Amino acid sequence: MRLAFILGEIGGGLRRNVSMVVSVILVTFVSLTFVGTAGMLQMQINQMKGYWYDKVQVAVFLCVDTSTSPSCASGPATDEQKKNIETLLDSAAVKPYVTSWAYESQADALKHFKEQFANSPIVDSVSADQLPASFRVNMVNPEKYQIINETFSATPGVETVIDQRQLLEKLFSVMNIASLVAVGIAGLMIICAILLIATTIRLSAFSRRRETGIMRLVGASKAVIQLPFVLEGVIAAVIGAVLASGTVWAVAKFFIQDYLADQYKDTAFISANQVLILTPGLLVLGILLAGISSLLTLRKYLKV
Amino acid sequence: MIRFDNVTKIYDQKTRPALDSISLEIDRGEFVFLVGASGSGKSTFLRLVLKEDHATGGIVYVAGQNVANISSWRVPKLRRGIGVVFQDFRLLPNKTVFANVAFAMQVIGKSRGIIRETVPEVLKTVGLEGKENRRPHELSGGEQQRVAIARAVVNKPGILLADEPTGNLDPTTSLGIMKVLDKINRNGTTVVMATHDDDIVNEMRKRVIELRNGVVLRDEAKALYTSMMPIIPAADSGSGRSAGAHK
Questions:
Q1: Is B104 touching A (CB cutoff 8 A)?
Q2: Is there a contact between A286 and A240 (Cβ–Cβ < 8 Å)?
Q3: A218/B contact by beta carbon, under 8 A
Q4: pLDDT tens profile A167-197
Q5: Are residues A189 and A140 in the same domain?
Q6: A48 and A181 within one domain
Q7: What is the rounded CA–CA span in Å between residue A229 and residue A236?
Q8: A37 or A3, higher pLDDT
Q9: Which of A62, A205, A274, B152 lies in the 20 to 30 Å Cα band around B46?
Q10: What domain range includes position A65?
Q11: Do B92 and A216 touch (CB under 8 A)?
Q12: For the domain that residue A92 is a member of, what is the CATH number?
């Protein structure tokens, strides 16, 4: 009986306030979509880190004719210098940090270069002796890059040591900034949503002050009087959260999974189903938003 | 049933108290008229009984409980034991007579079966049989007030507070309302009625408590609206206060 009564009150309240309820739904929808997007970006960053960090190598480039670094003063790396580097790579100081290494000759480098830039006219103007030979080192722990750097950067015949991870870090930092921007916008929109929910509840309480006044007088409990108002806000916010989850999922499905993943086959993208993990979080956030702001409003405008 | 012990209520420090240290007791089953000019403290009295306000000083007892000790979450329980009727009826315009009365039971969680059984009974008590499906605007003022009374007593409160219930009604209709209140009183409910209506008070011959400027001017059993006692121009505090008020 009491449940049916409260549900009836909620239905009446929602109908009476349609335009405000729709605006609450839209604001929570937009704000939670930004929250979801930020979450999705973070998931994508983690996914790429997991994928790339297994593959990235530390490259020890050897001197070529055109090298300018001081350690290349004596011209291109000699076979002796190469031997020396190989010995160092297998030495006790370095070996524990290295899972494997491979030598990429200038001819190999040219082959890879041609594959990578197959569609570019630059390929024709590059010859093997312009490209440096290198040792590709796979690390046990990619974070320990510094060890290889210290060991080899001053070794004769080595032009430079490059951690490929650093190239990725740049990409990740761009993505991190994008997700921070999304979080910032989400924060503003959430403030909007809280204020709008508070206003809606206040209007709703005002338009039903006769009912609530009588409820007070005949001794209705605080819960019976306030619950319909709180639930009105919560229902609107939940609808907004469901729409936001749907949008985030659609972006993951149709943009990332079907388009980006198809275009860039060698990159690891998140799948649409992974994004569904965000849904409960968005729902809880929506419920908290509405619940807290309506309770605070009711404390002020609907005394019992 | 209701006891005031030196109760003072001050709304604003700069003006005189709305109630100034009044003490009185109303027993179970009594019918009491609360009379006095506007601003004499009648409404404040009723508000204190309902715990809509808290007394500035003194103690208010309702049904044996010091209302100051009732925690806010138990206030609804106190109010379930008190029915209230107003001058302006305060009915819900979009609900039928039946639904208006049933509303008071729904919000405290009564079952549908009990509501179906009780509401027609109460409507019969107040003389509204056959009008269950009317809406308030289809009823006369007297009938609307009967609906309000039915709503106030449907949960069988021990106390019925009526704040000028006949203030908007003509004398004949008022008399009908008084019959209903009298009937409810004879069923054992304590009735406290604040009023300006001298005809009704003179007709009913019940206990009359007259307030003036927040003090009890007189408290007589089976009394009339105006005091039968001569005002003694003595230099005691009571007459001094009332003389001051006339300035």
A1: yes
A2: yes
A3: yes
A4: 778 888 888 898 889 888 888 988 988 898 8
A5: no
A6: yes
A7: 11
A8: A37
A9: A205
A10: 58-164
A11: no
A12: 3.30.70.3040
